[in-house]
Amino acid sequence: MIKEYISKMKGGAQCPPGVASSEVLWSWIGAATGVGLCGYLSSKYFEPGALTLLIGSIGASAVLVFAAIKSPLAQPRNLIGGHIIAAFIGVACYKLFGDTQWLAGTLAVSIAIAAMLLTKTLHPPAGATALIAVIGGKKIQDLGFLYPLVPAGLGALILLIVALIINNLSKNRRYPEYWF
């Protein structure tokens, strides 16, 4: 039984094939545009008003929506829904358990995963969105329940709009695979 358990850790599938240069270029263009736009808008309009638009999980979402565009995890429902649901849960966990940050963070991520699975909005970067609500510092924590809208929801929406434009410029790419 232990041997069988350990043998699972060897894996079984072959490594995926390499990616064409054109795919690398389109992924780079999309990520640079999407994350760059979030960063620019944040520094120009949001940060002067004590808000932010650029959080770490947006970078992780860019990987999915520009480089893994066929993945179910990269589709609009998952991108937007996952971030908003996880952000809301993260804020609630911070407000309820913020005095014990490790517990608030643990609950934020684990409850967000369960909620995303139940709502068919699983988006791995949103796990970080939930955790950022707890450990993101005073600036993030002071946003309270605005956090699910700005930066989480609006940042994801900006990435979605850029992904719709950039990913469909190439004749070999199509995004999204589905909306709902």
Please tell me about this protein's structure.
- By secondary structure, the chain is an all-alpha fold.
- It has one domain.
- The protein is 67% helix and 0% strand.
- It contains eight helices and no strands.
- The chain has helices spanning 2-7, 21-46, 56-67, 76-97, 101-119, 125-135, 138-141, 148-167.
- Helix 2 (21-46) runs antiparallel to helix 8, helix 3 (56-67) runs parallel beside helix 8 and helix 4 runs parallel beside helix 6 (125-135).
- The radius of gyration is 18 Å and the shape is globular.
- The termini are far apart.
Q: Rg to the nearest angstrom?
A: 18 Å
Overall 3D geometry? globular
Distance between the termini: 41 Å
Structural class: mainly alpha
- How confident overall, as mean pLDDT? 97
Question: How many domain units?
Answer: 1
Number of helices: 8
Largest beta-sheet details: none
Helix content: 55-70%
User: What is the subunit arrangement here?
Assistant: single chain
What fraction strand? Answer: under 5%
Order of helices and strands: HHHHHHHH
Q: How many individual β-strands?
A: 0
Question: Which blocks of ≥5 consecutive residues have pLDDT under 50?
Answer: none
